[in-house]
Amino acid sequence: MGLLQLLKGQFLCHLLIFYVFLVSGLLVNLLQLCTLPLWALNRQLARRINCRLGYCISSQMVALLEWWSGTECTLYTDPESYPRYGKENAIVILNHNFEIDFLCGWTFCERFGVLGTSKVMAKKELAYVPLIGWMWYFQEIVFCKRKWEEDRRTVAKSLQNLRDYPENFWFLLFCEGTRFTEKKHKISMEVAESKGLPKLKHHLLPRTKGFCVTVQNLRGTVTAVYDSTLNFRNKETPTLRGVLSGKKYHADLYVRRIPLDSVPEDEAECAAWLHKLYQEKDTFQEGYTQTGRFPGPVVNLPRQPWALLNWLFWAVLVLGPLILLLLQLLQTGSTLTVLCSLAVCIAVSGAVHWMIGQTEINRASSYGNKQAPLNNN
Ligand SMILES: CCCCC/C=C\C/C=C\CCCCCCCC(=O)SCCNC(=O)CCNC(=O)[C@H](O)C(C)(C)COP(=O)(O)OP(=O)(O)OC[C@H]1O[C@@H](n2cnc3c(N)ncnc32)[C@H](O)[C@@H]1OP(=O)(O)O
Ligand SMILES: CCCCCCCCCCCCCCCCCC(=O)OC[C@@H](O)COP(=O)(O)O
């Protein structure tokens, strides 16, 4: 094991990385708060500023994946569609099997220049995650409670807000609604059976309402659906803890561009269209498990330096004062101040632990663990 690799596994390094993330994130959240009056005066300018501020936070996690862990992300896609990525508004559909799938999604956003504007339909609970959840509020992320009676109005309203968004954005939908577990898979296949739908091997049965409401509300704003299927080589099961410890993973992503015009307008037809799409996705995953690759050619998409430069900027800004403080503490600090500093370190490491916990599948919600009652409206 090289010295660098040894260093990447050290708790002190993780603490420093998290310190930069935490302090810079809080500063960015504060700046975002300061833009509140601007929303009333010049909404479009406020949105553009918030995209860039949000980028300062999310790109730190991308830098962690690309530069710290050195994870490789390979894109399989049709070279004719490729030039349009990042230059149009799109709905992205992604399978939800991995703890770092959102991070791989962000990496692709970064490479196509839409990281600051990336959007998602996220469960409401994530709005309360410090830094990321607070940042999302200013980035106009669409939150849902996964209770259709309540979501149908609020989700449509949030989607309508995006109709005059000033920059190109990708809107991510995990139509399965929750992360894949064997138990959730078994139950959702019972639902599939009761609806006369073919069984899926690698996906949960997609929830169609969020997709249909998104298409209805963003038609005319979004031009395509990017059907994206993610997997990892050699049956890797990547984790955020692994990434933080410098473990290198190999992600493969297959993207098909589907013009939005070909998605039916009628709700029942739209739902059937989505079910068919997931059956196709399932065959791609099956092919991947058999051959280790997706159909279609590989497009070379090198990592960009911006995420790393952003991290270095914030690291210089917030680590300098910390080092000065620590030196002063060592010279003049009483036992009490040293103990207080230790307590702060313990609190910070507790915060990392809790935030990483949000990404862990074994701490996933119970959503999808039992059949929701059949809904006819
Ligand atoms: C490639 C590049 C990538 C680019 C990345 C771009 C952007 C990145 C940006 C950010 C990255 C950060 C990512 C953060 C991740 C956070 C993600 C989440 O939080 S996922 C969870 C939240 N999102 C969703 O749930 C979306 C999908 N859900 C829906 O669409 C739902 O319909 C809903 C709108 C949320 C409503 O939920 P509800 O529970 O009320 O669902 P339904 O009404 O749909 O449920 C009833 C329906 O489902 C059938 N049913 C019952 N039980 C099950 C079951 N166990 N499994 C499947 N289906 C079930 C039931 O019969 C009803 O069927 P029907 O609709 O036909 O009546
Ligand atoms: C440089 C950065 C260093 C940072 C170190 C640690 C930072 C930790 C940051 C935590 C970020 C939290 C973002 C949460 C995104 C989680 C996405 C996710 O996967 O949500 C799950 C939902 O889709 C479904 O929920 P379930 O029903 O499966 O339950």
UniProtKB/TrEMBL annotation:
<keyword id="KW-0808">Transferase</keyword>
<protein>
    <recommendedName>
        <fullName>1-acyl-sn-glycerol-3-phosphate acyltransferase delta</fullName>
        <ecNumber>2.3.1.51</ecNumber>
    </recommendedName>
</protein>
<keyword id="KW-1208">Phospholipid metabolism</keyword>
<keyword id="KW-0443">Lipid metabolism</keyword>
<dbReference type="InterPro" id="IPR002123">
    <property type="entry name" value="Plipid/glycerol_acylTrfase"/>
</dbReference>
<keyword id="KW-0812">Transmembrane</keyword>
<keyword id="KW-0472">Membrane</keyword>
<feature type="transmembrane region" description="Helical">
    <location>
        <begin position="16"/>
        <end position="40"/>
    </location>
</feature>
<dbReference type="GO" id="GO:0003841">
    <property type="term" value="F:1-acylglycerol-3-phosphate O-acyltransferase activity"/>
</dbReference>
<feature type="domain" description="Phospholipid/glycerol acyltransferase">
    <location>
        <begin position="90"/>
        <end position="212"/>
    </location>
</feature>
<dbReference type="GO" id="GO:0005789">
    <property type="term" value="C:endoplasmic reticulum membrane"/>
</dbReference>
<comment type="pathway">
    <text>Phospholipid metabolism; CDP-diacylglycerol biosynthesis; CDP-diacylglycerol from sn-glycerol 3-phosphate: step 2/3.</text>
</comment>
<dbReference type="InterPro" id="IPR032098">
    <property type="entry name" value="Acyltransf_C"/>
</dbReference>
<dbReference type="GO" id="GO:0008654">
    <property type="term" value="P:phospholipid biosynthetic process"/>
</dbReference>
<keyword id="KW-1133">Transmembrane helix</keyword>
<keyword id="KW-0444">Lipid biosynthesis</keyword>
<feature type="transmembrane region" description="Helical">
    <location>
        <begin position="336"/>
        <end position="356"/>
    </location>
</feature>
<keyword id="KW-0012">Acyltransferase</keyword>
<dbReference type="Pfam" id="PF01553">
    <property type="entry name" value="Acyltransferase"/>
</dbReference>
<keyword id="KW-0594">Phospholipid biosynthesis</keyword>
<feature type="transmembrane region" description="Helical">
    <location>
        <begin position="311"/>
        <end position="330"/>
    </location>
</feature>
<comment type="similarity">
    <text>Belongs to the 1-acyl-sn-glycerol-3-phosphate acyltransferase family.</text>
</comment>
<comment type="function">
    <text>Converts 1-acyl-sn-glycerol-3-phosphate (lysophosphatidic acid or LPA) into 1,2-diacyl-sn-glycerol-3-phosphate (phosphatidic acid or PA) by incorporating an acyl moiety at the sn-2 position of the glycerol backbone. Exhibits high acyl-CoA specificity for polyunsaturated fatty acyl-CoA, especially docosahexaenoyl-CoA (22:6-CoA, DHA-CoA).</text>
</comment>
<keyword id="KW-0256">Endoplasmic reticulum</keyword>
<comment type="pathway">
    <text>Lipid metabolism.</text>
</comment>
<dbReference type="Pfam" id="PF16076">
    <property type="entry name" value="Acyltransf_C"/>
</dbReference>
